[in-house]
Write a structure and sequence with these properties.
The protein is mostly helical and 130 residues long. Helices cover 72% and strands 0% of the residues. It has 6 helices and no strands.
């Protein structure tokens, strides 16, 4: 049963962005990277809109998402965005927003197992591009 989600997709994405940032930064430290310029460069392979868009498409291909998660993703893809991504087109930016919105939703609505599963899988996909 899906919760009634009152937050809009952009608000959920704002939270999801912070969650993914923290998770990926810890992930890179655990992998043994210590130089800040290395960490910065490598983190963009996971955290840029382009990278997140690619990850979302990969997970959709794998059939990763549950029904309620797909609803949140749709809301994210349809979001009204008033900022522009640095190195991504509008479609990629909206896909990244959708992914971040889902992360925010999973956290805010207490789905810790799915959140961990998703973050773990995102880190794995990101690792493949290192």
């Amino acid at each position: 049963l899906m919760e009634i989600v009152t937050e809009n997709a952009v608000t959920l994405a704002w939270l999801g962005d912070a969650l993914m940032n923290t998770y990926i930064r810890e992930h890179l430290l655990k992998k043994g990277y210590t130089r800040v310029d290395d960490l910065q460069k490598k983190s963009t392979r996971y955290l840029s809109a382009k990278a997140q868009s690619r990850m979302l498409r990969q997970l959709e291909k794998e059939g990763f998402f549950l029904e309620d998660e797909a609803v949140i993703l749709q809301r994210g893809k349809a979001a009204r965005i008033h900022t522009k991504a640095k190195n991504a087109d509008v479609r990629e930016y909206l896909q990244a927003t959708a992914l971040e919105a889902l992360l925010g939703y999973l956290h805010l609505y207490h789905h810790p197992d799915r959140l961990k599963m998703l973050l773990t899988r995102l880190a794995q996909i990101g690792d493949e591009s290192l």
